[in-house]
Fold this protein.
Amino acid sequence: MTSDHSPTFGVVLMQLGAPASTREADIGAFLREFLQDQRVVDAPRWWWLPLLFGIISRRRPRRLRPLYEKIQIPGQGMPLFYHTRQLTAAVAQSLHHPQLLVRHAMRYGQPSLDQVVAELYEQKVAGILLFPLFPQYSGTTTASCHARFHALLADLPLTPASRTALPYYDHPAYIAALATSVRPYLNASPEAHLLISFHGLPQRYVDQGDPYAIHCEATARLLASQLDLVPHQWRLSYQSRFGKEPWLLPATDELLRILPEQGIKQVVVVTPGFAADCLETLEEIGHTGKESFLAAGGEFYATVPCLNSEAAWVAALTTLIKEELAGWLQAAEPPSSMPMMRDT
């Protein structure tokens, strides 16, 4: 039981973002904001920014527009926005705590982290938990969210307490939710090979100490173990390469072209690094990947939807958030509800 004077805390579920619409102007605006982040593209500014605001801003939105049009949800917009809204509402209901304000924000796009932090500040929250929905840590995603969050807090007249959630790549609740989502697909196709595809990263970042690949490998091993798979029944890969420098291998698109030659004609693909379906999962894996695999001689291809707002994931995320909030909510309870201390 809480008192009317108990402090309130904010929980912010953080996603990468997506264009506001399928209009080329909105796609371009998203790309410029996203690719200006030096944690995402660390190329020299004098070289990269003219390229971004010139060729990339003009050409890439035109190429991406039909792809975004293919995946948008009628009446709801981009799948990433829709599923994140649904997840936020479901988690708020699951937590069901009068001291918690649960919100979502985008690192690039709307609602922006700036807007959400400002709203929570107006609500006079005592603390804010930032929960990036990236299971595997990377400087290009998690650290970028952290940096923006702490920069915003530093500019406030009165800074609330703050926490940033730990990466949850190996948390049992997350792994169990993943296994729950994958198991029906493997049960329906027992001979299928499980391809566990993560978003790629330039190899250079990992060589410089980014733990992303280690986290992806741990997630893949734990998921395979939870599903009782032996090594020849699954493999890990990386998708979404961009540019000419070496990226993490093996590459998902290349594997899908050569697996049929290796005798693997049935494939189920899961993308555990994405908390919600988006262009990379629905178009790159769901459409282009399928076409590539079947054209190469594959006979069966299925993709597992992201966790989105599935009940198992809502329950898992609720567990994760409660663990991260440990101490805040308990400390806010009135003294009468606290256990008596023994004399020592």
